[in-house]
Amino acid sequence: MIKSDKGQFIIFIITAILFVINSFLHLLNLGAVDFITILFYFIMVLAVFNAGMTTEKYMQNK
């Protein structure tokens, strides 16, 4: 695991962006709303929340 705040900040931002892209690509296929689509949507929400918390921590330590 990356120990520095800047490294964690960058990794969490990239992860959140990729989950948002993935979730919206799944939502474009509206005919097949299944468990995986709902799961990725909730993971996206958690990833964006985690990125926000990491951003706050990074800004306070900067």
From TrEMBL:
Keywords for the protein's UniProt record, in alphabetical order: Membrane, Transmembrane, Transmembrane helix
Spans traversing the lipid bilayer: 9-29, 35-53
Protein name stated in the entry: Uncharacterized protein
Gene source species: Halobacillus seohaensis
